[in-house]
Amino acid sequence: MAKWAEEGAKNAGAEVKMLKIPETAPDQAIEANAAWKKHYDKTKDNPKATLDALEWADAYIFSIPTRYGNLPSQVQSFIDTTGGLWFQGKLSNKVVSAMSSAMNPHGGQESTIQSLYKTMCHWGAIIVPPGYTDKVTFAAGGNPYGTSVTVDQDGNMKEHVRDAVVHQAKRTVQVTEWVKKGISASRQVSV
């Protein structure tokens, strides 16, 4: 999903750095799961996510697996290192969107995304879910919080999810442009 998000964001005109949160699981756990091992081997040399990268970016698109309906420990550990940036206000007004996957339907994808979004609220980030802004959301399972997918035992997913991920990435870039330019369609507020 991250590769599709990278494609969608680039096609929308964004400068993209695709980064991987460092793996902290023991080799034994990775070796015991063929799909995890395959993904690990394929991405082990990818550039790692850093605090400097968080400070540099105007927007983040997180593509994360679910762990019992929560963030994987690797993601939570990385987020736990961001306190200094948060304290300095360097994570506020960043645009954030998230996607998730699990090996079974209703495996916690939505709650994983919402768990991440709770942290983003603390950061003062601007959360950009795909909502129902395009019909591809319905084709990909209808999750308005962020694209979610069921992955089979071999790490494969349905190709129709690609369109939903690309849409979500393009929407994230569009909202980021609005935020950075200070453009608003209206200054009217209903309370």
From TrEMBL:
InterPro entries listed in its UniProt record: Flavodoxin/NO_synth (IPR008254), Flavoprotein-like_sf (IPR029039), Flavoprotein_WrbA-like (IPR010089), FMN_Rdtase-like_dom (IPR005025)
GO molecular function per UniProt: FMN binding; NAD(P)H dehydrogenase (quinone) activity
Domain of life: Bacteria
One annotated Gene Ontology cellular component of this protein: membrane
SUPFAM superfamilies from the UniProt entry: Flavoproteins (SSF52218)
Gene3D superfamilies reported for this sequence: 3.40.50.360
Every Flavodoxin-like domain range: 1-173
NCBIfam families per UniProt: flav_wrbA (TIGR01755), PRK03767.1 (NF002999)
Family per similarity comment: Belongs to the WrbA family.
Name of this protein: Trp repressor binding protein
